[in-house]
Amino acid sequence: MPSRKFADGEVVMGRWPGSVLYYEVQVTSYDDVAHLYTVKYKDGTELALKESDIRSQSSFKHRKSQSSSSSPSRRSSSRSRSRSRSPGRPAKGRRRSASQSREHKEDKKKTVQETSIALPVLVLFKPSENNTKRYNGEPESTEKNATSCIILEQKLKPDLEIKRMLEQYSLRSRKDDKKKEEIYSEKKTFVAVKPIEKVSTKTKEMEFGGRIGTFMLILLLPATVFYLLLMCKQDDPSLLNFSPLPALESLWDWRVFGVILLWFFLQAAFYLLPIGKVVEGLPLSSGRKLQYRINGFYAFILTAAAIGVLLYFEFELHYLYDHLMQFAVSAAAFSLALSIYLYVRSLRAPEEELAPGGNSGYFIYDFFTGHELNPRIGSFDLKYFCELRPGLIGWVVINLAMLLAEMKIHNLSVPSLSMILVNSFQLLYVVDALWNEEAVLTTMDITHDGFGFMLAFGDLVWVPFVYSLQAFYLVGHPTTISWPVAAAITVLNCIGYYIFRSANSQKNNFRRNPADPKLANLKFIPTATGKGLLVTGWWGFVRHPNYLGDIIMALAWSLPCGFNHILPYFYVIYFICLLVHREARDEHHCKQKYGLAWERYCQRVPYRIFPYIY
């Protein structure tokens, strides 16, 4: 094993990936497996660099002094003598010295480029990409409009044209022009390939309490689901009113498990249908972009048609209510089997396909968080499919079953007002998610988290059986509300939905096309990654306005259940804890990714989720 050359804490010069520019960095750690140094730039950005991309500061000082010591008087005298003669007819004896002087100048230019002093190199970069001044955090411009990139590009065009004309009619030798052309082509290639290639390294910071915390969550999450469903069946669903556990044989039914399998593979068949557009996701660490078929809304329509056919032939959908616990146990067993399969197959996955947060080397932690980032069977993306299809659409089907069960048990000709509100609010939420399915490709679940037990159990068990808790509660504990109260709850849900949808749309449109004239009024802080952080609109109000809208909607879903018990408000309490924890994770990742720009954004937008509170 080769020994490391640079020690932790040593200040060296690190090459910015894909360029010839070197910056002063500090070595923070070294990976013995991948042979990569983790270095920290002055603005807080951390990158993994190879040893060949790092140089000591003394080598730069030596080269600089060497180039500066080369006879400046000779160059100045040569220039002064050349002015007195015709440039078209130089003396024969001086022609060779002029060639040597040009070679000396070219060598000096290369040295200056490596020490990041030469500014013409920056002209080769697009205005919307990484900029040296932005990267180093210089106060050139902390805020920009979305159209400023276009204006800057138009201003640079005349300068570029003049530069090309000067190069075309210059008196340099063809050999020097060829060298410069090769350097220019290398810079051009770097501009075309935007992603910076990184090698996946071991996970250093473990979340969710590490190995012990993830082990406890694997046990507690299923237990929580089963406990909540048992409490909803009790006459007194108080949290401290423990009821005797049912017999184990009553929790399992092979027919129910068969229905779970049929549901999963039916949704998979809808996903594989050649309908809907195909889009590309965000670039991976290798620069590759995966393709995804956007047809979740069509799958919902086909599922609704299938449910309609079953109801037409008088299929008793309230069967779900009578066997909901067995369905939850079967779904949990299936998600566990799927998680085991995902972990086993991830052991053969290439290093660059592993999740950045699930590559710790510890079985329990990687099993829970997900070892592989995008597990696929051919073009079938398992994580993307489970994110919205089986669980989210299943949530709506369970709600409909609860509505029909309420009508049958209480001999109602129409559902209660409370049940109608809960079903309508949550149906709107699911339809909105499926209609805007493409937006999920930019979420942390897709871009950062691997596909393991956490997402498999969450998508297939937690979402359909915990999110439908209010409808399940109302079947056994009917609650009567007046029309004015129902109207007030509806207004509250609409406010939450408006904040949620408009904030997400604003963010997605800006990510897709920052130069859109419709977004010209938005201001943003440029970052070293080439992306911008919005500081106006909803994202200038709080850092996560979509979370704020989500929490308001969650409260509106629980209010129709009244205030007799806290059980139907479990979803609101859990959701606040979930989003606060997710916001903390996102804060940590953004600070590492954007560095000084993120600190400026936090100063401009101090509140995280709740304005003037948190």
TrEMBL record:
One of its GO terms (molecular function) is DNA binding. Keywords: Cholesterol biosynthesis, Cholesterol metabolism, Cytoplasm, DNA-binding, Endoplasmic reticulum, Lipid biosynthesis, Lipid metabolism, Membrane, Nucleus, Oxidoreductase, Phosphoprotein, Receptor, Steroid biosynthesis, Steroid metabolism, Sterol biosynthesis, Sterol metabolism, Transmembrane, Transmembrane helix. Residues 101-112 have a biased composition (Basic and acidic residues). Its main location: cytoplasm. Residues 76-97 have a biased composition (Basic residues). GO terms for cellular component: endoplasmic reticulum membrane; nuclear inner membrane. One of its GO terms (biological process) is cholesterol biosynthetic process. It catalyses: 4,4-dimethyl-8,14-cholestadien-3beta-ol + NADPH + H(+) = 4,4-dimethyl-5alpha-cholest-8-en-3beta-ol + NADP(+); 5alpha-cholest-8,14-dien-3beta-ol + NADPH + H(+) = 5alpha-cholest-8-en-3beta-ol + NADP(+); 4,4-dimethyl-5alpha-cholesta-8,24-dien-3beta-ol + NADP(+) = 4,4-dimethyl-5alpha-cholesta-8,14,24-trien-3beta-ol + NADPH + H(+). Pfam families: ERG4_ERG24, LBR_tudor. The chain crosses the membrane at residues 212-231, 251-273, 294-313, 325-344, 455-475, 481-500, 521-542, 562-581. The keyword ATP-binding does not apply. Residues 53-113 are annotated as: Disordered. It is a multi-pass membrane protein. Its EC number is 1.3.1.70. Residues 4-62 form the Tudor domain. It is found in: Cytoplasm; Endoplasmic reticulum membrane; Nucleus inner membrane. Residues 66-75 have a biased composition (Low complexity). It comes from the Eukaryota. InterPro entries: ERG24_DHCR-like (IPR001171), Lamin-B_rcpt_of_tudor (IPR019023), Sterol_reductase_CS (IPR018083), Tudor (IPR002999). Belongs to the ERG4/ERG24 family. This is Delta(14)-sterol reductase LBR.
